[in-house]
Amino acid sequence: MVDNISPLTSNNTSNQNDQMNTVPVQPLTTQQCAPNFDNYLESYLQNDSTSEFNESALLFPDAISIVTHYLKLPTQLLLVNSRYWAAATQMLQQIIPSTLSSKYLLSYNQETLFGRLSVINEAELKLADGELTKYSDGLLILNISPLLVDPNLWFMLKSVLQRGYLQASDAVNAEKIKQVLPDLTTQAINTKIILVASRLQLEELIQIDPEYSQVTSLFCELAGQVPVSQHSINAIASYCHRAASELGIKPLEQSVLATLLDFLSVQCQHQQQLLFSPELIQQTLQYSSLFNDNNQVTKEDLIAYFEEVEQAQSLARKYSEQSLIEGQVNLQLSGQKIGQINGLSVVELLGYPCEFGEVFRISASDMIGDGEIIDVERKVELAGNIHAKSTLIVQGYLNHFFSHINAFPYSCNLVFEQSYQECDGDSASLAILIAVSSCYAQFPVKQNIFVTGSLDQHGNVLPIGGIKQKIEAVTRLFELDLLKEPVLIVMPKANQINLTLNIKTLALVESGKIVIHAISHCHQAYPLLLNKTFKEVLDAINLRIETAAKEEMDETSNSLFSRLIGSIFR
After folding, report:
1. Rounded Cα distance, 428 and 383, in Å
2. 3-class DSSP state for residue 333?
3. What are residue 349's phi and psi, to 5 degrees?
4. How far is Cα 174 from Cα 183, in angstroms, rounded to an integer?
5. Cβ–Cβ contacts within 10 Å for residue 56, how many?
């Protein structure tokens, strides 16, 4: 098959792409490294911040529409997908009319729902009604957790909803009573049930009962993260004011609201998303008020709370930092090295409530071979499948540029230095590419640069996770006095919107100590790390291959000439 592209057109396109990818990348400004909600808050305050907003109507309009229609339909069950019980209950409280009797149950059991049978005497039984009977024409809002802990409870509830009445055998103690149980079939149960569950809990319910949909139901969901807009800022700021009032805290100032919104944005690690968790907001305000004796929360109180919580969760991170201070981890933070580069990773520990970033070394050494990148981590089973996939993508991308050579004469040994536990992910792809390219071309890599980013097989730099933790790992190197001179961080451009850096990191960016470059193609990284364009790197590798081939031919010719002379004058 022949491509319908002339060589001239193809070369022109390639040249245009090379020119685009070698245009100098401008470093990010401080304003680009963190969210800013000042304009939204000013508009909120101008519109009289003391007025009450219907937060749910602003945050979850689609869910409100579903719930409103559900209340008017004969449908028995509504599934509300929400990570937070408080967010769901707040939304429902603002929709369910006061004329409709309703009850919210976070914890319950068989007796709570179906009642209890007790023996008065040999001829008389007493049935204490459960909530299903008490709210026969009303509404029960249930957290799904007790149904998952005791699946039998779900099947009993499902049966009641299907048949429309209770059986005395559903009540607690019914199986122990030998007398004839009362007939309850004439008492219709018209209770409407709303189940609040996370997505994982709904999946567990499906595993318990694949036919749970036999009960007619509707479904709606509340997003844990809400997009930043004037409406969402108004709603969340209004809720913060209301929560402060309920906790006996004086009205919040604009600086406090701004700090709270920054905090909610950090939880999403997204400049245009906010986490709406009533539980978290209430906990933050309540804890922060402990730093102030005047029933008031200030910006400084919030910062003190954040720092205290961070310190309480920092033991594992401090052990990592201690190893850096003591020199137990080898880091090269200045000068230049061939085939060595500083990568950034995120450490996740089982049972640990938070993650933190770490700097690690990637090194590559070349040898005679066939173009294979020998991934040592994968060979010794210390790396997962995603990591293996990323290494193969890098190998394929590089080898693509040497398809004119019958056999690429070099291979490369790749090592994540001082890695003693399993790792996975593809965020080191860009760093691997640079290390291997440096090794093949024999061009040194600057050691005051930190690199993170994934790659596709066309060289595009793709977004990765944990960009905040990774960059703040570099900030800690300054705090530990391991770094004094300015450093550069290379990251995916697509992750720019995920930058929610802390105050210390922003100060270093502002002072020029940390310079962040966001790139979209791997070619843009070469001038930053190697002071060479990608074309210059390829030319150097080709020249090295040609030189090696010529030397091999000369050795072969000399060996053949020696054998001929030896045979003549034997």
Report:
1. 12
2. coil
3. -115, 135
4. 13
5. 22
What are the pLDDT digits (tens) for 389-405? 999 999 999 988 988 88
> How far apart, in whole angstroms, are the C-alpha atoms of residue 141 and residue 103?
6
What is 322-538's CATH number?
A: 3.30.230.10
> Taking 50 as the threshold, does the pLDDT of residue 182 lie above it?
yes
By the 8 A CB rule, do 377 and 419 touch? yes
Structure confidence by residue, pLDDT tens digits, 26-37: 999 999 999 999
Residue 88 CA to residue 220 CA, distance in Å, equals 11
Q: What share of the chain is helix, strand, coil (3-state, %, to 5)?
A: 50, 20, 35
Distance in angstroms (rounded) separating the CA atoms of residues 407 and 369: 9
Per-residue tokens: 269 = 């690690």
Tokens standing for residue 290: 């402990």
Please name the CATH architecture into which domain 61-221 falls: 3-Layer(aba) Sandwich (3.40)
CATH code 3.30.230.10 region(s) in the chain: 322-538
Using pLDDT thresholds of 50, 70 and 90, give the confidence band for residue 301: very high
Residues 362 and 350 sit within 8 Å (Cβ to Cβ): no
Q: How many CB atoms lie within 10 A of CB 100?
A: 12
- pLDDT for the residue numbered 118: 83
Better-predicted residue by pLDDT, 183 or 18 = 183
Between CA 126 and CA 124 the distance in angstroms is 7
Q: pTM here? A: 0.85
What span, in angstroms and rounded, lies between the C-alpha atoms of 397 and 403? 11
Rounded to whole angstroms, what are the CA distances from 425 to 386, 471, 498, 507?
A: 5, 17, 18, 30
**CATH 3.40.50.300 region(s) of the chain?**
61-221
Query: In which residue are the tokens 């944990």 written?
Result: 466
